[in-house]
Amino acid sequence: MIKLTVNGKSTELDVDPTMPLLWALRDLLGLTGTKYGCGEALCGACTIHLDGVAVRSCVTPMSRAAGKSVTTIEGLGGTHPLQQAWEELCVPQCGFCQVGQIMTAAALLNAKPQPTDDDIDRSMAGNLCRCGTYVRIRSAIKKASR
Amino acid sequence: MTTMMARREVLKAGGLALVFFPAAAFAQGTKKNQPTGAQATQHSGLTPSVFVHIALDGAVAITVHRSEMGQGIRSTLPILIADELGADMARVTVVQADGDKKYGYQNTDGSSSIRHVYESTRRMGAVPRTMLVEAAAKRWKVKPDTCVARAHAVHHTSTNRSLPFADLVTDAAKLKVPKPERVTLRPDADVARTHTPLLDANAYVTGTARFGADVVVPGMLTAVVARPPVVGGRVKRVDASKALVIPGVKRVIELPVPVLPVHFQSWGGVAVLAENTWAALRGRAALDIEWDHGENEVYDSDTYRAALRASINKPGTVWRKVGDADAAIASAARVIDAEYHVPHLPHAAMEPPAATAHVINGRCEVWASTQNP
Predict the structure, then answer these.
(1) ipTM, 2 decimals?
(2) Are B268 and B242 within 8 A, CB to CB?
(3) Predicted structure pTM score
């Protein structure tokens, strides 16, 4: 039995400790907002927060999440400044990577509320967008940080 | 250890993950995924076509019959209809069409949706607008062409009267539906389109947009497929014993082998069905497969390139001819000579295509990430 907190709710899962957090969230808890892109921490689509830090849930085994606090897009609130900025600037195209982008950006703003362009580029470098929405992503982060 | 699947159980989406669920989940599954709005049978309100339904309270449901892939078609088509109708976007909901002949051609391919359906889509909005205007004109005993529809109401400006759509739906529904080709479109200048919102933006940023793999039905099984390493290859021998002992793994199934050329067929391979994705992935990793690579085993990139190059000088089909290229090049002051070669490329979309299928009583219901339902 693995205990963890998911979006503020304490949760117990009887689960293979090697199961990546991504599949526990999606398949066992029904939190399908977090996406599976590559399964190898290469694309960032599965990004969530583990104790406030952005991690790739596809390569984070449940054993590592034990006792920790997980925040997914479903726990971000829906009206987070980043979500509002993303909507206002029509950032998404196909939308598949955007949840991961927002979770990475949210961790950045938690750590540094007024990031520079360099901070943004460095933090967001691991989140791929096949549609190429990078310019709007950066604008939305700057808008949300104001 | 392997079982051949019945043809009808095979999903054409052919992506990384196939998801199956057993009969027990059906009731809940269909309830959750029940079609709504214009797709459901409408007993009340105004339904002049399969694309638009206006409920008695004025709420407009617009059905999009094309697939969203980031091009924004789920915003563009509803906006075209809403603009023609004179609807308030805040009162419009978008319904994704099932794959159904009644919607016409649904293949979302070749960047051609707008080129093909721009005008016909506008007419789908102009038809109910014409009916609502006619209903209002009758009520006021004025000529329809003295009325305008905008902001979810019909207005008679000269007498400063307005009727919201909700008050006109019942009367409009009694009128004969005009032929789409007979209704008058608004002048382009009359239609805003200065700011076109992304209607799905909120769903994308809150994680509620539902992609192929996000269809959840209680009790469903998840399958992942070990694909042949060479397209057109087949399984020579598979030992699934190590996969089947992994907790959660239910079944291992060998998929039908495609006939070359593959085109849009599934690539075949070996599917591992399990209670969750992780068990299925572990099961797939535990498969011991020996492949017969088939006739593409001798495929050689250099040979293919040489064949392409040789074909350049053969006569081809002329699709479009503008001017005289040969003469222009012959008389040009400067000629740039370059050769370009593009290898085989995957689309590499970030969303791994996935489908959910339910087979019961000879029927198969499928939810899929597909361009062509």
Answers:
(1) 0.97
(2) no
(3) 0.88
